[in-house]
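pasting for ref. prot 1 ->
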Amino acid sequence: MKILITGAAGFIGFHLSKKLLDQSYQIIGESKFVDYDNLKETMEYIYGFLDFLYFITDDYLSS
């Protein structure tokens, strides 16, 4: 099952994503204040996982 998590780079969203990934869900993470490359490096280095299906970074309120 695919799940969209908004604010996935925040504390709660990040840990929720990790828990759901551990239970074999596919995650589409969204956060407007994150540089994808830095997030990817952080997740791989500190937490050891890169199992997001997609990660969307955008500021939807700027337009």
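and prot 2 ->
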Amino acid sequence: MADYVPQIITAVGALAGSLGGVAITQQHQRRTAALERADKRRAELRAHIVEFLINADEWASHMDIVIVVMWKATDRDTIELSNSEMAKKAGELRYAVTKELKHLLGLVGDPPLQEAVHVFHDLWLKVSDQMMGPVTDKKRKSDFTAVEESMKYLGSLRRATIEIRNAALPLLRITVEDPQPVRWWQLRRRRAARGALTR
């Protein structure tokens, strides 16, 4: 029996070493997979935020002109405008902003960015009443305050867009580093730290 003791010790040591190596490798793979998922989600979020910001800015610039045109338009002009390229472009941009806004509502989990998206969403739902309502009101065709109200509302939408951009910047600039492999001396330190906690 004494002759087999070194072989048994060697076998137990090899078994412990291989199981420890497997555990370290699996832990490293889990961390890498989690980082890859986070990076993939961040890339998807980045694409939607960039698309949203581009479309919202272009829509707001387009609406600067549409507000003034709609304020001065007669009934006949309104019919012609509804069939014009300007109306078609405004509709396409509104659809694009709405689509990206829905993506952001579903994807965003960070509280500051989520709050900024919800503020924009609340403003966006009232665009037809609050922004276009004053300039399409027939009673206010000669009242310049109608244009001022609409432009003020458009300004609040622009500020909400800037808030989304500002809230998104810190999230999108985070660099993801690969996890470093765990070394044997680090495992000893962890065991010692765990042992100190249980005492």
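The domain at 42-173 is CATH 1.20.120 (Four Helix Bundle (Hemerythrin (Met), subunit A)).
The chain has a mean pLDDT of 80.
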